[in-house]
Design a protein that fits this description.
The chain is α+β, with helices and mostly antiparallel strands. The protein folds into 2 domains: 105 residues; 52 residues. Helices cover 57% and strands 17% of the residues. It contains 3 helices and 6 strands; from the N terminus they run H-H-H-E-E-E-E-E-E. It has a 6-stranded mixed β-sheet, with no helix packed on it. Strand 2 and strand 3 form a beta hairpin. Helix 1 runs parallel beside helix 3 and helix 2 packs antiparallel against helix 3. The longest helix has 48 residues. It is elongated, with a radius of gyration of 26 Å.
Amino acid sequence: MWRMPIITSPMTKSRFRTILTSLAIYISFTGLVTFSLFILEESIQTAMFGTWPAQDAGDWYTVKFGIERIKEANTTLKTVNYCFGWIQPLAFIAYRAYGRSTDAYIAGAEAKLFAHAPTLFDGDEITITFIPEDNRGNLYINRRISVRTDSRLTLGKPCRVQGRVAVNNDDTVTINAP
């Protein structure tokens, strides 16, 4: 009958204890990092879930608040993951993908928010897809939104524009693009 060998050599015991201690430290640190990333993921999801009923209700202030909260948590998640996530490679890959997917949700939610409540972006630097319907010199117009740019835009053709949002007295919005 086979028996587990008993470790009796002081050198073997010391080496075994060192291995176990190192393994315990690694597992503890890995758990600390991945649990922190998990809580940040939950924070993002909770804020995301909160934006859905706010969108249904047309409460765009709450949607903007939720998006800002998601951005903050996602920035922290990415920072923790890139600084310490490499300690657990599979978790690093998973949370990197989660952070990127969260970026996609943020972009979509901001596009919807801008479409419904562009005045909430007053003073913000944004990038949007814009379809000019009319122009007056270097001012291109689509209903409540206009883009002031030195670039030539084609009427009726979607284009990406980036610039700073300014709310006008009549609650229209002008994006000042280079």
